């Protein structure tokens, strides 16, 4: 090995962690210490709060926190907080919001809010015997065993909705599931669901040992493999949509309304039938979704996993958005499975998360679901609008221009020059470099 393993790293102070990293991996270059320190918050209490969000923290990693205004959602005008590092995401969402604001805005519908979790277990017993045991004894015991832990959630209108026995023995020998559905109201509910499931596992073990119809050999075959929620929530879903008459679908690209609508719909259809395109198409949707998910302190990895699993639920990966043109009406919508919360986790701790939720009017979990679906739909509309008219690079590279100039060390005067230079041109990396070199050479 080219480095030495470390023991007890988590127990070291922050400074000693940094010292070890610089010595072991960074050739004693102390300039990296300054890089880490410049991202520490000057408020020691706030810095400590951030450090306690995760483990082995030595600094903070900043992302741009932007605002996309003019979102008319179900009659409410909102400005969406977006934490994202990619150029043009906020701009595209904002442009789409402005496009639809005078056409009725975005409409949303909560289709369902059911979340799922499983106790996965192995039991070498005939399926009909397990089913009888579940229906006439175990199911009731599971509800009874979790009454204390679900009491507060039930008082808020949520709790365990149902528990089913799933026979998966055709896929894996003697494999069964206790599949439970939950309503966690305004919380994402991961801890609640997992706590309930762990009680399921314990209760299952106890009740199997008591079951007189099982032989001792059958009882001994029980193995509780794991108790865990699922981030695939196909029944926790929201629809967001926009629609208008084609005659009102005015675009500034120079093509007719009818041509724009036809090309747009065809682009969506291609994403519905072609997985290579659908992957990039849905990535763009998640640009909009994840940016608001992060800004509101929710789990973007769970959001991503769920969305992509849903896109492949019918055996072929396809678009999350859809488009129709019927009787002169253009309609564009998304059905997004998403599980988020507005209480618990970082929502009550991170100052910017609290700001984001306040900015959005302190939404319920269902209202936040709607906002996230709209953000994804708007982002997708903006991307497709560019793709079928001017092309994606014109707008994207114009936003990316400052990244290139910052890498080159451009001054503010030089940046202003490039804004003017590319006012009527498409930005390319080659052209920026070429013009930059000429500009610098001319100053010598």
Kindly describe this structure:
One of its GO terms (molecular function) is hydroxymethylglutaryl-CoA reductase (NADPH) activity. By secondary structure, the protein is of the alpha+beta class. It has 16 helices and ten strands. The chain has four domains: 9-52, no CATH class; 68-112 and 249-390, Alpha-Beta Complex (3-hydroxy-3-methylglutaryl-coenzyme A Reductase, Chain A, domain 2), CATH 3.90.770.10; 115-230, Hydroxymethylglutaryl-CoA reductase, class I/II, NAD/NADP-binding domain (Alpha-Beta Plaits), CATH 3.30.70.420; 395-442. It has helices at residues 14-25, 31-37, 44-51, 89-100, 127-145, 147-155, 190-210, 216-220, 257-273, 275-295, 300-311, 351-359, 365-387, 392-408, 412-421, 429-443, and strands at 65-73, 76-83, 107-113, 115-122, 159-167, 175-183, 223-229, 236-245, 321-326, 329-337. Strands 3-8-10-9 form a four-stranded antiparallel beta sheet. Strands 5-6-4-7 form a four-stranded antiparallel beta sheet. Strand 5 (159-167) and strand 6 (175-183) form a beta hairpin. Helix 10 (275-295) packs across helix 13 (365-387) and helix 13 (365-387) crosses helix 14. The chain is globular, with a radius of gyration of 27 Å.
């Amino acid at each position: 090995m080219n480095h030495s393993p470390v023991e007890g790293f988590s127990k070291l102070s922050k400074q000693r962690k940094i010292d070890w990293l610089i010595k072991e991996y960074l050739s004693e270059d102390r300039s990296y210490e300054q890089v880490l320190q410049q991202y520490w918050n000057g408020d020691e209490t706030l810095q400590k709060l951030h450090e306690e969000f995760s483990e082995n923290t030595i600094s903070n990693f900043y992302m741009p926190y932007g605002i996309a205004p003019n979102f008319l959602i179900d009659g409410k005008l909102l400005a969406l907080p977006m934490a994202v590092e990619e150029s043009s995401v906020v701009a595209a969402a904002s442009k789409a919001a402005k496009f639809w604001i005078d056409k009725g805005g975005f409409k949303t519908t909560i289709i369902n809010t059911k979340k799922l979790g499983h106790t996965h277990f192995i039991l070498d017993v005939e399926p009909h015997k397990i089913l009888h045991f579940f229906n006439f004894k175990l199911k009731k015991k599971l509800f009874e065993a979790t009454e204390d832990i679900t009491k507060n959630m039930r008082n808020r209108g949520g709790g365990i909705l149902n528990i089913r026995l799933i026979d998966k023995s055709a896929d894996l020998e003697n494999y069964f599931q206790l599949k439970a559905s939950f309503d966690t109201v305004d919380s994402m509910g991961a801890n609640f669901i997992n706590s309930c499931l762990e009680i399921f596992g314990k209760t299952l073990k106890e009740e199997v040992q008591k079951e007189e119809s099982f032989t001792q050999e059958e009882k001994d075959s029980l193995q509780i493999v794991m108790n865990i929620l699922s981030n695939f929530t196909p029944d926790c879903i929201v629809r967001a949509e926009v629609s208008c008459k084609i005659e009102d679908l005015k675009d500034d690209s120079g093509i007719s309304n009818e041509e724009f609508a036809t090309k747009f719909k065809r682009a969506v259809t291609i994403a519905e039938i072609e997985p290579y395109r659908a992957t990039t198409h849905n990535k763009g949707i998640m640009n909009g979704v994840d940016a608001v998910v992060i800004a509101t302190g929710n789990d973007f990895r769970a959001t991503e996993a769920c969305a992509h699993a849903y896109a492949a639920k019918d055996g072929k990966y396809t678009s999350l958005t859809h488009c129709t043109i019927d009787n002169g009406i253009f309609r564009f919508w998304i059905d997004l499975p998403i599980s988020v919360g507005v209480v618990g986790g970082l929502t009550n701790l991170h100052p910017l998360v609290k700001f984001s939720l306040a900015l959005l009017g302190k939404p319920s979990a269902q209202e936040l679901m709607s906002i996230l679906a709209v953000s994804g739909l708007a982002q997708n509309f903006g991307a497709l609008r560019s793709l079928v008219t001017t092309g994606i690079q014109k707008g994207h590279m114009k936003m990316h221009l400052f990244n290139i100039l910052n890498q080159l060390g451009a001054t503010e005067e030089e940046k202003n020059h490039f804004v003017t230079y590319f006012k009527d041109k498409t930005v390319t990396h080659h052209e920026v470099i070429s013009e930059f070199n000429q500009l610098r050479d001319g100053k010598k």
